[in-house]
Specification:
Helicase, Ruva Protein, domain 3, seven-stranded parallel sheet, 2 domains, alpha/beta, about 240 residues
């Protein structure tokens, strides 16, 4: 199998049918075929068909999801593309660095490149769902057209992976469909014992997400952690509140 068989492009709430069409064309130029759309604009729009050119079939085969979490549920390696930095957007890699990481993880793991809305990009919560973050270095103006950004990443993937030997000894990581329930259980338990602030539990949970993303948990490790939090829940059944309160 080729490296493109393990890659998906995900567009979150694309607003321009023309951009979706151009994304299809860009993907076809570099051999990618798995397009996933989260709450998209109409993709049977004349502008989408016009700009897709010879990639109209990809519009018809694109899969549509209600949430980003659903769209990347089977992708152990997911990359949120962003131009913004901040305390919740750290360790942002270049396209080349991301390609190297993806190359080291496939075919044991499926990878997804996630792109946000044309006018506002990805939300902080959507970025947190992804394992890594990446940005395209620019000069003065950091925002790129959606289709242009997809094209650049597709090119980097083609250059970095098409001639490379796909690793056959990569460790299989737990997919988001297993990881997200762990985070939900962890948050509930940490709220119960008073470790998280009820008014803003996401603040520290994003730190835990970064820690476990770096660790690269497999399915067995996720099961161990879920067992740990289940035991904490049982042991604190009569817990009366945070120490010192």
């Amino acid at each position: 199998m080729k490296y493109v068989d393990f890659l998906s492009i995900v567009l979150v709430e694309p607003q321009s049918p023309g951009n979706v069409g151009m994304v299809c064309r860009a993907m076809k130029n570099f051999g990618l075929s798995d397009l996933r759309l989260v709450n998209p604009c109409p993709i049977d729009h004349p502008e989408a068909l016009k700009f897709a050119v010879s990639a109209k079939g990809m519009l018809a085969s694109a899969r549509i999801f209600g949430t980003l979490e659903e769209a990347i549920a089977d992708c152990q390696l997911s990359v949120a593309t962003t131009r913004r930095h901040g305390k919740y957007r750290q360790e942002i890699f270049s396209p080349g660095e991301v390609v190297a990481r993806i190359g080291a993880g496939i075919p044991a793991n499926r990878a997804a490149l996630v792109f946000g809305r044309e006018d506002s990009g990805l939300t902080t919560d959507e970025v947190a769902l992804c394992r890594w973050q990446a940005t395209i270095p620019t000069d003065e103006f950091g925002s790129l057209n959606l289709a242009q950004a997809v094209l650049l990443f597709c090119y980097e993937l083609h250059q970095g992976l098409s001639a490379a030997k796909v690793a056959d000894d990569a460790r299989q990581l737990a997919p988001p469909v297993e990881i997200e329930p762990l985070y939900a259980q962890m948050q509930a338990t940490l709220l119960k014992i008073g470790f998280l602030k009820p008014e803003n539990p996401s603040h520290l949970m994003r730190s835990f997400r970064r820690i476990f993303s770096r660790a690269g948990l497999d399915s067995r490790e996720v099961a161990v952690l879920r067992g740990l939090f289940s035991q904490v829940d049982w042991a604190t059944g009569a817990f009366l509140g945070k120490k010192g309160k």
